[in-house]
């Protein structure tokens, strides 16, 4: 691995692992960067960032992309020139959200680590469509009295980035921004500070969520031996309980899983999502209120077995995947989208436009999902 900016690269890798352990990012979702000094010394707006479609679990320092030529050019009187375009270096394509990180480093000179997460409760609150007020204790640890929300834009687009730019410019004291129907954007003084921000924001968001929805966020009781997942292995369906032990399911459970396997040849793993918020949507249609639901689940999910990777039966919600890891990822996204939908019921927010959902789903299936590694 190149020794250039090794310390900053290591900070990004360590931060990504910390975020995973705390459940604030999953698989390839979100992106993480760290500012680097100019030519090894001084101050710059250049940074290293996680690449597109690479899983945090296996990412190494050499995988990160370096974004340079972002600092003001002396030949232009200290002003950025349109010809002074960013240069991207590295073995993989950088995250499509790198312009959003560049905005933060330009507008927040004290920021040295930037994190874009899809954390569960804060992402859900982005459907409120307004600033999220914080109590005194939360404001003290987060460093702002409320969390503003930027306008919606499709992932990786100028509209999304322009919305973030507007919020950062209009709220000079805000280092945390909710991205409407998308996730969270955090500007940290250090990698450790960025991690603390993400944790404190999620704790505050969970409190606000409970107050707005009245949910007690209980875990539904799981009876001993209850089959919660299955895998198709060499033509045989094997069922597992919540502890991973092989079990014999009820005939109703077996039939529901076998029907999905017979209908969907691309599915080799099924997980039941047992969640207090998801249970509100069993037997109903659930539209995408968050980008990642549209991307990896479908433009809509319901009780029928179709192209969606979620089946919301009246008795149970089932998450489908080519592997158990894929089904687990769908489970995580379903939980987030259910919470976003619950907030939308409070705020009156609409789901993401159908055409945008179709576009995101197609792009994800044909391009982005094939990059993960």
TrEMBL record:
UniProt keyword terms in alphabetical order: Lyase, Metal-binding
Q: Which GO terms describe its molecular function?
A: aldehyde-lyase activity; metal ion binding
InterPro entries named in the record: Aldolase_class_II_sugar_metab, Aldolase_II/adducin_N, Aldolase_II/adducin_N_sf
SMART domains, from UniProt? Aldolase_II
Q: Which SUPFAM superfamilies match?
A: AraD/HMP-PK domain-like
User: Which portions of the chain have biased composition (kind: Basic residues)?
Assistant: 77-86
Superkingdom assignment: Bacteria
Locate the region Disordered.
71-95
Q: Can you give the residue ranges of the Class II aldolase/adducin N-terminal domain?
A: 10-209
Q: Which GO terms describe its biological process?
A: pentose catabolic process
Task: Please provide, in alphabetical order, the Gene Ontology terms of the cellular component aspect for this entry.
Answer: cytosol
Q: Is Acetylation among this UniProt entry's keywords?
A: no
Protein name per UniProt: Class II aldolase/adducin N-terminal domain-containing protein
Which organism is this entry from? Corynebacterium lactis RW2-5
